Amino acid sequence: MTEPALEYEPVLRKEAERRLVEKLRKIAIDACSEEIKQFAECAQGKTLSVAWKCREPNQVAKACMNKFKEDESLKSKMRLEYVFVPV
User: Fold this and answer.
1) pTM for the full model?
2) How far apart are CA 84 and CA 87, in angstroms?
């Protein structure tokens, strides 16, 4: 069964939107696990120096995570999946 075509973006309640954002964050963490692992390895044993010694791995991990956070088509797809949950 295919989802109906909508001319508008479904609006979710705040709690549903919060759960959707949390799900999106988990997807991003899973997809960017290697980049996050490299940053964590760099940061191991460092305190304040992590800010400049691990800048590059941190930026790579952030960039990977932001790809998911800023992907409007993925957000729209997830909203539609939330609205049209099969019974």
Assistant:
1) 0.71
2) 9
